[in-house]
Write a structure and sequence with these properties.
With about 140 residues, this protein is mainly α. The protein folds into 2 domains: about 40 residues; about 80 residues, no CATH class. About 55% of the residues lie in helices and about 10% in strands. Strands 1-2-3 form a 3-stranded antiparallel beta sheet. Strand 2 and strand 3 form a beta hairpin.
Length: about 140
């Protein structure tokens, strides 16, 4: 067997470096593909859809929730706990629209359970936190 010459060894080292670079790029592409597959799963499965929220812009939805909490139409949420599942067409306690698509949150209230779009529930919880902070500051 012939001994490896210096130019042949240099060629092998260059090839090895290229293989390592290509391997790193392939793993990056695999990670990106997995991320896209997860996004596609959410889009293809209507039960996992994040949507179906009120047509109101976020700042108007926030104002609506704050007014409903202040007037007693909505109760203050002490935590963000709720049951969520696919929409069943119930009326949203926040925006008063029917929940036809996306996730539907069931929130246990003082008298009975109420339902809300996922986004509406999220805004409701945030406004409840703001309401609690305002009352603590006003009492001081």
């Amino acid at each position: 067997m012939d001994a490896l010459t210096l130019p042949a060894l240099a060629g092998w080292m260059a090839t090895l470096a290229e293989v390592r670079t290509m391997t790193r790029e392939n793993w990056r592409l695999v990670g990106e593909s997995r991320s896209r597959i997860e996004s596609a799963r959410r889009l293809l499965n209507p039960a996992w859809e994040i949507g179906g929220a009120s047509e109101l812009p976020p700042h108007e939805l926030g104002q609506l929730v704050a007014e409903k909490i202040a007037s007693g139409v909505l109760f203050v949420l002490s935590d963000a706990k709720s049951w969520a599942g696919p929409a069943t067409g119930k009326q949203c306690a926040v925006c008063d629209e029917k929940i036809y698509s996306g996730a539907e949150c069931e929130i246990r209230g003082p008298r009975e359970s109420v339902y809300a779009h996922l986004v509406c529930h999220s805004v409701w919880y945030q406004q409840s936190q703001n309401f609690g902070q305002e009352n603590c500051t006003a009492a001081s």
